[in-house]
Every structure is written in structure tokens, then in C-alpha cells.
Description:
By secondary structure, this protein is mainly beta. It has one helix and eleven strands. It has one helix at residues 66-72, and strands spanning 4-7, 16-17, 25-28, 36-38, 43-53, 58-63, 74-76, 81-83, 90-97, 103-105, 110-118. The longest helix has 7 residues, at 66-72.
Amino acid sequence: MEVKIKKICENATLPKYATEFSAGADLYACCCEGDIEIRAGETALIRTGLAMEIPVGYAGMIFARSGLATKRGLAPANKVGVVDADYRGEVMVALHNHSGETQIISHGERIAQLVIMPFLAASFIEAETLEDTVRGAGGFGSTGK
């Protein structure tokens, strides 16, 4: 599959897969105005300098990079970002600092990973009743201990 990418900033880095079998392609910070400081407990919007044309029927899912999250406490604030097929603006990552220390993001640093995934569009139909199941209305830990 091909995904067209437009550089909004000439210094932007195209997404790259770290290994042959990586599901996610690394997204890189585009900090043309200098390093970005994210204080403990705060969120910063990090530019990638890229716009993309995700194919119809697919979405670009933006996930945390495990190393960045576990070693520095930095992960997407919305947990998973969604880039819709009809979005043509700059892809940005809202990074939240879960650590107790200020973190610095530098130009060209890997900040998240992008997974291109198919999805199904549903038709939502109002109903008076729903089919019964063993679980029923149990939620929030009702299936385990």
C-alpha cells in the first residue's frame, strides 16, 4: 500500500519502519523553532511537519512508542490518535509527560508510531431491545477477578 506524504516543513522526516516486520512506522518530531520542553504532568502538541493521504477504508492510528513511554513517561495524551482518510492537515502528536521530571523533545526524535489499519463503517440503528448474552450489562472488571 502506498500512502502519499506531503512535507509541510522541509526539515520533516518521513515515517520509517524500524524493522522488516514492524507494524508501526516511527513518526519524528519536527521542531524547527528549537527543542520543546514538556513539564511533568503537562501535554505539548508536537509537530511532525507532514500531511498524509490515508487511503479510503483505512485510518492512521497513532500509538505510543514503548521505549519513550517506559523510559521517559511520554505517551500520546489521547492514548491513540486517529488520522482519518479525509484529513489533509499536519499530523501532530499530543505528548503527555507522565513522569515527575521535565522532558525535552528535539528535532528528529522519534515521538510515536503510525499504524495504517482498515476499519468498518457501521450503520447505527435505534432498537427497543438487544439480544441477551451471558455477560449482560456487566462491565468494568465483571468478567474477571
